[in-house]
Amino acid sequence: MRNRFNSSNHPAQVTMHTWTNIWCKPWLTMFRAEHKMIVKGCMRRRHRSLFLFAHSYTAKLFLLITSVLTGVIHAVEMPTFEKGTKRPTTMREVRDLHAKDGLEVFRPTIEPAKGVTIKKDIVYAERKEKTLHLDLFLPAPPAAEPHQGQAARLPPLVVLIHGGGWKKGDKSGEHSKAAWFANRGYAAASIQYRLSGDATFPAAIDDCKRAIAVLRHQASQHGYDPDRIAVMGFSAGAHLAALAATTGDNPIFETTLDIASNAVQAAVIVAGPTDCTNPNAIEDSRSPDGNYRLFLGASYDDNPTIFTKASPLTYVSENTPPCLFVGENSDKSSAAMRDRMTELNLPFDSLVLTGGVHGEWNWEPWFTITMEKSRAFLESHFKNQ
Known about the structure:
The chain is an alpha/beta fold. It contains 13 helices and eight strands.
């Protein structure tokens, strides 16, 4: 098996800024706070060859120098599986498989940069099951004053929704992504929501929409732009992000218009279902401990209507904001929703992560690829808003 460049899924080959962030920044700033986990990781794994570590960064430096001299911009390296290769089922197996070719697979811990403000455990809702909180990461103030006569533009806000099959997970799991965004001038909020063990559908989406409305209502207090709010979710959180995006201010779920609008202006949907009536969901619901069964409170056979009601696909309309769909080794999970958005001539983009297993977006090299693609997508849609 070889690790090959996969240029068809990522914009890095056409933007110098994205390319330098992915390839050059780890070399040039590896002793900064954001990348100190690389050094720590090597110290924790002393039994690994130091040559492998040196080779990895020397290769990137070589690519940097040759690109500058030749003017050729290389695509981001995304590993793939050779045909006939036994597919790994865990990230440990993925790490061991790619290590044979010199690719270091590790989970980064992103530290907030100097000047980033973190406000933890902000209460946004009181439910009978529990009090719900969110953690807010605010970027450092701009270093330079705006030009005379121009007002400083407030940063956009990204609302992060964790995954975990709707039955587990915590807002702290998205802190690295929140710090990543805050380090680049975005505000980011990681939210808690009721899990299936607390309450069944539509409790989780009600909570997400309430969080969005409260965050918009408090925008002036915290200093971000209430008119540029995006939602980004992962796995089960991606389903909730897609549902929040397609049902903005739709009274079918909790009405929060008395506080502020719960609509979002963009959505990033990372490896989550957009159609809850797909065959895998139906089969899963037939198991008493299946994620869909626990989340929706019924099997598809007993209550097919609730599966349709829980599907983001059901609500796609001309009001649906731009969406970025991130798939894993295929784009099947979002196919129906993308087809519907195409019919309505709605803007969307897509990225397929290859060479990993579910959850690889939390690990390098997929973490940076996913985050840079998401930022490029958000900037392209927020710049004129």
